[in-house]
Amino acid sequence: MSELLHVSNVTAGYGDGPAILDGAELTVEPGKVHCIIGPNGAGKSTLLKAICGMLKVRKGDVLYRGESLKGLRPDQVLRKGICFVPQERALFPKMTVRENMRMGGFSLPDTSNLEKRIDEIEERFPILKERRDQHAGTMSGGQQQTLAMARTMILKPDIVMLDEPSLGLAPKIVQEMFDIMRMMAAEGITILLVEQNALMGLKNSDWGVVLDLGKTLFSGPAKDVLQDPRIQDLYLGGSKAA
Amino acid sequence: MADILQTLILGLALGGVFALMGSGLSLVFGVMRIVNLAHPVMIIAGAYVAYWGFKLYGIDPLVMLPVAIVILAVIGILLYKLVFEREARSAKYSEMTVLLTFAVAMIVEGALGGLFTNTQRVTSPAYATDAIFIGDVFIPTGQLYAGILSLVIIAGLALFLKYSRFGYAIRATTQNREAAELLGVNVSMVALVSFAIGIGLAGAAGSLVSFVFSFFPAKHWEWIAVLMSLVVLGGMGSLLGTVVASFLLSVIAAFVGTYIGATWSTMTFFLALFLILLVRPQGLFGEKPELA
Ligand SMILES: Nc1ncnc2c1ncn2[C@@H]1O[C@H](COP(=O)(O)OP(=O)(O)O)[C@@H](O)[C@H]1O
Ligand SMILES: [Mg+2]
């Protein structure tokens, strides 16, 4: 089994505070959609922050293509090809949509093709083309999430980590976000998704990982995780849910 | 009628200068979340650069302006490195910097007083006492030059922020620091450069102020409230807001000065600051303050 990213037995926390993650395990395979589920406060967001360099990995290791990411800053992790879209979506509310897209290419060493690349992406997301001169902060939640996801594609990343793209969105819009995510995956981008909405998340993923109290409990093919009785009871609201 | 027009023109001319005085403060607040209480004393320092350039060598304050920018920007870099760089990583940063900038303001005031005494100074190039007449109204030439040049500098700053790569980085950091960092912006470098630009702008403002107002080291205390009212009304961190607020308050202060009395003119700014904080703390162009 080839693996792109491997998180082994990671301990991490905020500042000098207690360890929030303790024993987090994760294997990410190229081209697949991975979904981390778990109750509120389980440490899902913390895990993504530890991977992208926003939080220090205290123990254990994060290996990317066999190379440790420990101690790297977020911009260094980004330059290795791992994009992170945090829960808050990381947009600049008073910049236009187009300017937000340009910021997505800020880390490129050569920006001579940036405008062309943004044009290509706008073609695929008509709403972003239509709203290009509008301030990002004035768009709806779904449009903002679309912008945040589309913006990662400027860098042609290997891995995109999405923290709760469904947060605060109407069910119909949520499916649109998952469709965009699947489209990114179809282009060969490996996805690491965090979802509070376990059912929706797993249904749109290949692989499922269950995290609780900062520890990986269980992982497997998404449909197996969906069927697993432990998961059914804990996070999917009983056996009727699936 | 001529009185009203005259008052309006005097208000507008000073509005430009106030806008430049406030713009550096606004920029530094936007990027670093520092309310730099030492900003006005830096303007005084810039005024002394222009004053001595003229007094000792007869150099026009408009020519001294770029010199003042460079000198003050360098002071800004040193100050950032010595005082703010360590603080920038601390969570209690905002509260700490209020005290720190207050201390810096006192120290610089003391140093300026020690070096140049507390005598009132004003740079006096020929145009400073000249005026242009259009019919019944007059425009003091010094104020006109200072106002126009202020707007030119602010326009340059706005273009830099809007179009340059570094301008994008500054705006991104102002609006969402964490997101900027995630996208590869070196936010410490942005903070350093913004601080240097902000203090450099104080130097520019100082050169112009030096022939518009008389000044002495302790004068900055009066300006703190004036500048605070401008950036608070404009919406902390919004450059456009600062400019609009400057013209608005400056014109109001001019009318208060003409029709109520000169001593009440400055009170306009203090009263405005008080009212804005009560009624609309986010200012004209600012975000609603987060209560979380
Ligand atoms: N910035 C922070 N500082 C301190 N503790 C935090 C911070 N963010 C989250 N936590 C704590 O970490 C734990 C896990 O949070 P998080 O990773 O956000 O959970 P999840 O994303 O799974 O809902 C929670 O107990 C939360 O209180
Ligand atoms: Mg979370």
Automatic annotation (TrEMBL), chain A:
ABC transporter domain boundaries: 5-238
Keywords carried by this UniProt record: Amino-acid transport, ATP-binding, Nucleotide-binding, Transport
UniProt cross-references to InterPro entries, sorted A to Z: AAA+_ATPase, ABC_transporter-like_ATP-bd, BCAA_Transport_ATP-bd_LivF, P-loop_NTPase
Tagged with keyword ATP-binding: yes
One BP annotation, GO: L-amino acid transport
Molecular function per GO: ATP binding; ATP hydrolysis activity; branched-chain amino acid transmembrane transporter activity
Pfam families: ABC_tran
SMART domains named among the record's database cross-references: AAA
Domain of life according to the entry: Bacteria
Family membership noted in the UniProt record: Belongs to the ABC transporter superfamily.
This protein's name: ABC transporter ATP-binding protein
Organism this protein belongs to: Roseibium limicola
UniProtKB/TrEMBL annotation, chain B:
GO biological process terms, semicolon-separated: amino acid transport
Subcellular location as annotated: Cell membrane
Matching InterPro entries: ABC_transp_permease, BCAA_transport_permease
Transmembrane segments: 6-30, 37-57, 63-84, 96-117, 137-161, 182-211, 223-249, 256-279
Statement: the UniProt record of this protein carries the keyword Membrane: yes
GO cellular component terms listed in the entry, alphabetical order: plasma membrane
Topology in membrane: Multi-pass membrane protein
Superkingdom field: Bacteria
One of the record's GO molecular function terms: transmembrane transporter activity
Keywords assigned by UniProt, alphabetized: Amino-acid transport, Cell membrane, Membrane, Transmembrane, Transmembrane helix, Transport
Pfam families per the UniProt record, alphabetical: BPD_transp_2
Family from the record: Belongs to the binding-protein-dependent transport system permease family. LivHM subfamily.
Official protein name in the record: Branched-chain amino acid ABC transporter permease
Source species of the chain: Roseibium limicola
